[in-house]
């Protein structure tokens, strides 16, 4: 999975957000990158990021939610 991501990744030089969004200031860089890249989804299990899901139209989902919603399959245990 990581190879697939690395092969299709785009590097984004995102400016810092003007105002803090997440309760964890270190998480704002992910929101800034998503905003600069015009991304609609961030995949993360980080609780602070999950709480700000929907900010500027950016949905934050867990890896399980991403698989279920966007890959159209549910992995079997």
Which percent bin holds the helix content?
A: 25-40%
What value does the average pLDDT take? 90
Compute the number of strand runs. 2
Which class do the helix and strand fractions yield? mainly alpha
- 3D shape: globular
Specify the number of helices: 4
Biggest pleated sheet: 2 strands, parallel
Order of helices and strands: HHEHEH
Outline the structure in words.
The two termini are 17 Å apart. This protein has a two-stranded parallel ribbon with strand order 1-2. It is mostly helical. The protein has four helices and two strands, in the order ααβαβα. Helix 3 links the parallel strand 1 and strand 2. The protein has helices at residues 2-8, 28-36, 47-51, 63-70, and strands at 41-43, 59-61. The radius of gyration is 13 Å and the shape is globular. The model has no long low-confidence stretch (mean pLDDT 90).
Give the arrangement of secondary structure elements:
Layout: H1 2-8, H2 28-36, E1 41-43, H3 47-51, E2 59-61, H4 63-70
Brief rundown of the structure:
With 77 residues, the protein is mostly helical. It contains four helices and two strands.
Feature tags:
4 helices, single chain, mainly alpha, two-stranded parallel ribbon
């Amino acid at each position: 999975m990581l190879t697939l991501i690395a092969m299709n990744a785009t590097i984004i030089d995102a400016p810092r957000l003007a105002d803090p969004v997440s309760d964890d200031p270190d998480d704002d860089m992910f929101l800034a990158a998503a905003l600069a890249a015009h991304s609609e989804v961030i995949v993360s299990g980080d609780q602070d990021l999950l709480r700000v899901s929907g900010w500027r139209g950016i949905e934050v989902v867990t890896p399980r939610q991403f698989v279920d919603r966007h890959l159209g399959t549910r992995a079997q245990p």
